Amino acid sequence: MLASGCLGGMVSGLLAARPVAATAADAALDIQMLQTASSLETLLIGLYSDALGTGPLGADAPSAKALATMTNTTARDTLVRLLTDTQEQHREHRLAFQTITTALGGKDQNDPNPKYVSGVAAADVSSPLRLVDYAAVLEKILTDTYVLDLTQVENVRAKETLASVMAVEAQHLAVLRTVGALLRAGTPQFLKIPFGADLANLPATLATIAFPDAREEISSTAEPESGAVA
């Protein structure tokens, strides 16, 4: 379901792309957007760490407990694998953003975006479906933020990286929406890799759930300064 070797692999290649070249005026806003992007990636890394039981609360994290309640072991193992692969891609994204940030003369941003920290802490992730739905909300915020950033960023390498990462975030969103549809339909038995072996038996909603309507509005974005550090 998740082509981690495809879109995700593009990001690491961008780390070796052509040298960064930008004027001081261009770099100021670019650095803010890159730092904020790093803070968003950190936010998702933390969310998935909690779910995987590797965060500060370990197995006592509500989302980790939620995953442990899944009685279908194949579905649980598949979801754990998806979250693990997704988290690793977020780590790669943060490294890509940080690499360009420092090349432009900015400081690394390693903290989660403050605009969303309280919301993440208060989120109801007490069931696998609630966890997946909330993760999809955050992945959409990242996707939408990077789409808007692409209209403002000046540095070519930063633009290329944002475009590549935005595509991966959209992929994360599609996968999570698909998983959510399976859980919501009460068909966790179809949550397995390779996906599609039971195509004829899948819920009808899967035909469109991963593809947002052309009129789907941007729900929330992180302003360039929201995760910036001086």
List its salient traits:
230 residues, 7 helices, single chain, globular, mainly alpha
What's a quick, concise take on this entry?
With 230 residues, the chain is mostly helical.
Count of individual helical segments: 7
Q: Per CATH, which architecture?
A: Up-down Bundle
Largest sheet: none
Number of domains: 1
Rounded mean pLDDT is 88
Instruction: Give the distance, in angstroms, between the N- and C-terminal Cα atoms.
Output: 39 Å
Q: Provide the helix percentage.
A: 55-70%
CATH-assigned fold name: Ferritin
How much strand content do the residues show?
Answer: under 5%
Oligomer: single chain
Number of strands: 0
- CATH class equals Mainly Alpha
Explain what the structure shows.
- The protein has 230 residues and is mostly helical.
- The protein has 7 helices and no strands.
- The longest helix is centred in the middle third of the chain and has 31 residues.
- The protein is globular.
Layout of strands and helices, then pairs:
Blueprint: H1 7-14, H2 24-51, H3 62-68, H4 73-103, H5 114-122, H6 128-149, H7 156-184
